[in-house]
Amino acid sequence: MGDEHAEAVRLLWGPHPKPARGPRPTLDLDRIARAAIKIADSEGLAEVSMQRVAAQLGVTKMALYRYVPGKAELVALMVDAAIGPYPQVRAGRSGWREQLEEWARELIHVFRQHPWALDATVGPRIMGPAELSWLERAVSALDGTKLSGAERMDAAVLLVGHVRGITQQARATGPAGNPEAQLGAILGDLMQAHGERFPALTAALTSAAQSHGQDQAWEFGLQRILDGLAVLIDERAR
The whole model's pTM is what? Predict the structure, then answer.
């Protein structure tokens, strides 16, 4: 693990030694992260800065640097606090499909609450204990299925990709937007002029206009991913 990640690891995973003497700290990492999340939720991740967060907390920027060395570490704290630990599992463990379906629904709820997290969770980075609890939950849901460790990890990544894709579409169309309806309207206009060249697409759009609700693409994709996993799990069981 490179030195450039050392501070993020320390802040996310600890330990966080308390000063043996001197004035009592006026801030803590969770309070700092929550102040930054409040800005990101209302204005977007780009508007988060050490200066803005310090002002939100009523301290100087230099005072904030005593706790967090820079924005990269701040964003790491924000992600872990916003995602939070995976919710307490209900008593009575259900089958793997029900567990993963619930997991995906919980995750899309988080991303819809904090859409800036899409931008903050791209590429290799240090993840905190709360975020890793989600991955732990998804992988453990597939215990006993005879899938390999790599296959269980791939299943979790595939579900995350579906959640991210749907959330990104919704964000691009605005809070009141319906990405499927907007895309259908655009394609519908094109098919009116050029439909003879694309008969299958024209027929599909006609059917979709009659039956597609706002969350239809989300539900369809989720169930097809789970169907594919069910086929693979059945093959492993033979």
Answer: 0.83
